[in-house]
Amino acid sequence: MNTGKLVRMNRLFTPPSGRLCSIAVDHFIGYDERLPQGIRHVARTLAAVMAAQPDAVTMHKGIAASAWAPYAGQVPLIIQSTLMRTREPLGQQAATAEDAVRLGADALAVAAYVHCPAEVDNLRRVAQCVAEAARFDLPVICHIYPQEPGLNGLTVSFAPEDIAWAAHCAVEMGVDVVKVPYCGDVASYSEIVADATVPVVAAGGPQASTLEAALAMMADVVAAGARGATIGRNVWGVPNITGAVRAFKAVIHDGLSAQEALRLAS
Predict the structure, then answer these.
(1) Contact, 106 vs 135, CB < 8 A?
(2) 77, exposed or middle or buried, with CB in 10 Å at 0-12, 13-18, 19+?
(3) Separation of alpha carbons 138 and 213, rounded Å
(4) Model confidence over 170-184: pLDDT tens digits?
(5) Is 179 helix (H, G, I), strand (E, B) or coil?
(6) N or C: which end of the chain has fewer CB within 10 A?
(7) Is the model's pLDDT at 50 over the cut of 70?
(8) Omega of the bond prior to 16 within 30 degrees of 0, cis?
(9) Which of these, 61, 55, 104, lies nearest to 82 by C-alpha position?
């Protein structure tokens, strides 16, 4: 790994735990839902997130250009480059590695679906992003999700074998970090993490019924050996955003239980 990429990776994976607690404010395009309040009021949300000093924040390039200036340089910035919808599994690129570098980002995120008719095209796009980012020693974080048929078309699969396939596909495309859903079983996720030859971080998941439930899932992710997580709706979808970030950091970096970390969110 070249020095430039190593510097950026070390910024993301915070010592002494060596894990990442990234907060994502890039969601509404991908989930094909009405604009959530936490994303609609993005400047207010960013202020609440940054009050707890996460390890990084992931966003699209337009939000970075228009709303990130007050926090520039305080924590790493990750630019999400992909536009995707679950029912339209072929992703499109909205940002380049050069865009990310010009915005001062420490990494480029690229999203992809596999186990779907667009799998090969999506993986080709990931490989192209990796090649482009290599010119700048810019790490690439692949947000990769396996799909399966659902009641209303394709949906995300949480089966361990499908998640293992997704992680392996991303590694084969040359990415530096893989983000995959948590499969719901510590032992199975441990195998996925152990088999990957690059760091694995967890997707924050769908909105949990309670913050405690989301924190409990994160405790399982850490127990499985994952290098952290990128969390969206379970942070900006709760009333106390700052407290939620503190609680997730405590689970990811300090190994607190969900019940212990929940006290930090009050």
Answers:
(1) no
(2) buried
(3) 34
(4) 999 999 999 999 999
(5) strand
(6) C
(7) yes
(8) yes
(9) 61
Q: What is the pLDDT of residues 56-73, one digit of tens each?
A: 999 999 999 999 999 999
126-138: average pLDDT:
97
Within 8 A by CB and 6+ apart from 120, the residues are none
Residue in this structure with the two tokens 């790493």, named with its chain if needed: 76
d(CA 71, CA 28) in angstroms, rounded, equals: 22
> Are 79 and 141 within 8 A, CB to CB?
no
First-to-last C-alpha distance (Å) of the chain: 41
The first and second tokens of residue 151, run together, are 């009641």
Quickly state the pLDDT bin for 102 (edges 50, 70, 90): very high
| Domains of the chain, each with CATH number or no CATH | 3-205+225-236 (3.20.20.70)
- Confidence (pLDDT) at 205: 83
The whole-number pLDDT of residue 32 equals 58
Strand, coil or helix: what is 154?
A: strand
How many CB atoms sit inside 10 A of residue 175's CB?
28
Closest by Cα among 217, 108, 202, 220 to 163: 202
Q: Among residues of the chain, what percentage have pLDDT more than 70? A: 97
Strands 153-156 and 200-203: unpaired
Closest among 199, 227, 215, 228 to 140, alpha carbons compared: 199
- DSSP per position, 4-20: HHHHHHHHHSBTTTTBE
What confidence tier does 202 reach under pLDDT thresholds 50, 70, 90? very high
- How far is 202 from 218, CA to CA, in rounded Å? 8
Q: What is the mean pLDDT of residues 199-221?
A: 95
